[in-house]
Amino acid sequence: MSDKTSNQMWGGRFAAGPDAIMEAINASIGFDKRLAAQDIAGSRAHAAMLAATGIISDSDAEAIREGLLTVLSEIERGEFAFSTALEDIHMNVEARLKEVVGEPAGRLHTGRSRNDQVATDFKLWVRDQFDAFEQGLLALIRALVGQAEAGADWVMPGFTHLQTAQPVTWGHHMMAYVEMFARDLSRVRDARARMNESPLGAAALAGTGFPIDRHMTAQALGFDRPAANSLDAVSDRDFALDFLGAASICAMHLSRFAEELVIWSSAQFRFVALSDRFSTGSSIMPQKKNPDAAELIRAKIGRIFGANVALMTVMKGLPLAYSKDMQEDKEQVFDAADNLMLALAAMDGMVRDMTANVANLEAAASAGFSTATDLADWLVRETGLPFRAAHHVTGALVAMAERKGCDLPDLSLEDMQSVSPAITSGIFDVLGVHNSVASRLSYGGTAPVRVREQVARWKEILG
Ligand code: ARG
């Protein structure tokens, strides 16, 4: 298929073929074959435009169109012989097109370059990934809203510093992640809208003297408009960085939740049981049920954020316009996208399948003097103490309970009054965890009614 002594695309200027090492470092076909469908879609749009503008004949365009469909089906059937000598997907497709349709194939590359071609192909691929990212997030958000609805009034400990702080509701905790993944969703939609400009027709870097119609190709490929500056169009990889940025933040969110699931499913916490479908056993310890999916999700941030740093570093300091450095963009994004989609799907499955241990959650919520703040608030409300003084009184009561080895509601009224004579039996109403969460009615607070409002809002958004 290829002429080893000199390249069939630019052999005119070359007396010798490349060194084997040159070919090895230069070739991208090993990975950019993933762009085959996008490459062929781009070429079809370009050929149709070349005919519509009279740059090539209708019969040549028709031959190219049919030939490209043949090449596509060869690739889809796994019958295409990818060649490293042909370097990348663009030249592999064009060379095969030449074999299939002959002379008209040589007219396809009129008024374009591999520089606008690769930018277009990669954008189309990343755009699909933004769409898959959006769907993955929506599925996960649905799963979380479902958990929140089921457990809007289950009580669990809320933590700061991973120390028991105040009781919260399970639904409130789930809805916190809904907010995080909703911000991811907004980043994805924002970036998807921003990136949807077509590089095709920017040619090598300066545009072209042929009377091409970039609006026509942009529209055919589903872009909102052609990119306005040809130098920028061929050298922009912001869309890939936007993807990796949004993916990194989302992976960070996934990692935080995964960490909680690892902790919650441990024998020491037993807040949740993960399903058998999303756990593994141990080859030696028969009792083990390991949260491997959660651990792997926790780890995915490593390669996803790594890809972000890698591509940012590749792009840093590159002069305009295209440089071959930019060929290093694809593998990073491919790997990050594959792993992000997998992590989102695994988290979605785990969340749908997990069972909260409501009794353990409530027992843990009651431990650790979690309603001490409620006690202090009661002193402020009922006895008029300034909050700072109430904090002090409550601290003394916590110390007393700790000495006696009991919880706050187990102290007697006499015990309480020995610290502050103004305390009455009404105090016991606020020491229970259900009363505590029910009282947190401020907007965005953990009270079950507030959680149900948020669940209803989200169900309406999700439709
Ligand atoms: N394989 C190249 C890439 O991925 C395609 C563009 C090559 N352009 C060039 N002028 N060498 O970036």
Question: What features would you describe in this structure?
Answer:
- The chain is mainly alpha-helical and 463 residues long.
- It has three domains: 20-107, Fumarase/aspartase (N-terminal domain) (Fumarase C, Chain B, domain 1), CATH 1.10.275.10; 126-210 and 228-363, Fumarase/aspartase (Central domain) (Fumarase C, Chain A, domain 2), CATH 1.20.200.10; 367-462, Fumarase/aspartase (C-terminal domain) (Ribonucleotide Reductase Protein R1, domain 1, Orthogonal Bundle), CATH 1.10.40.30.
- Helix content is 60%, strand content 5%.
- The protein is built from 18 helices and six strands.
- The strands form three sheets. Strands 1-2 form a two-stranded antiparallel sheet. Strands 3-4 form a two-stranded parallel sheet. Strands 5-6 form a two-stranded antiparallel sheet.
- Helix 8 (214-220) links the parallel strand 3 and strand 4 (225-226).
- Helix 3 packs across helix 8 (214-220), helix 4 crosses helix 5 and helix 10 (238-264) packs antiparallel against helix 11 (292-315).
- The longest helix is centred in the first third of the chain and has 37 residues, at 114-150.
- The radius of gyration is 31 Å and the shape is elongated.
- The two termini are 54 Å apart.
- Bound molecules: arginine.
